[in-house]
Amino acid sequence: MRSKESVSIALLVLILLGYAPLAQSQSRPFLVVIDAGHGGHDPGAVGYYGTQEKDVTLTIARFIRLMSLYDPEISVILTRSDDRYIPHRERTGLANRLNADLFVSIHANAHPRHAAANGIEVLVSDDTAQNNYPQSRELALLLQRRLTRALGVTDRGIKHQRLFIRWAEMPTVLIEVGFLTNPQEELKLRTFTYQWTVAEVILQTIKEYLRRGPR
Length: 215
Ligand SMILES: [Zn+2]
Fold this sequence. Notes:
Elements lengths: L2 H17 L10 E7 L16 H16 L5 E5 L9 H11 L3 E8 L10 E6 L7 H19 L3 E7 L10 E8 L3 H7 L2 H21 L3
Parallel strand pairs: 1-2, 1-3, 3-6, 4-5
Antiparallel strand pairs: 4-6
């Protein structure tokens, strides 16, 4: 689809959503907290063309929330919906307080040496003894598969790292949606089509995972 067409379609969707009656969120079976990485004084990674990670993550998070507004299955709460910095403890703390089903943090990647590094990685906490580790790993594998297929990008596999998401008490992953340090990928990450597709795939995959129920 040409990008002008997709922008028009998105605008139409936004207008229609704006006129629809407010949905009741209480009756929805799933509650998910989506975290837009960085924010405020912390830009995160900055690309060759000046794209800031905090802006890319916020747009994708807002798209996910927007798509969920009239979805009868899922409620999406954002850790931030504007350009502000929120400490990591507060981000996971919100998910814990709400007793969310999942905590999903969205980031964009940087490679300090290889400008050519590209593709998607889904990260899980390296604390494999945590109760939520098996479910987090399963969600990570599913997201990795769905995102790389839908976007046609390099599948870098899931990664284990010591991350703040270990403070979340529910299944949790951190998604690196692409490399801002790769100028070609940076240009893609700035487009509406890429951001909208990432958001759509994340939301659909989360629902697919939650529908399966605990294993
Ligand atoms: Zn980041």
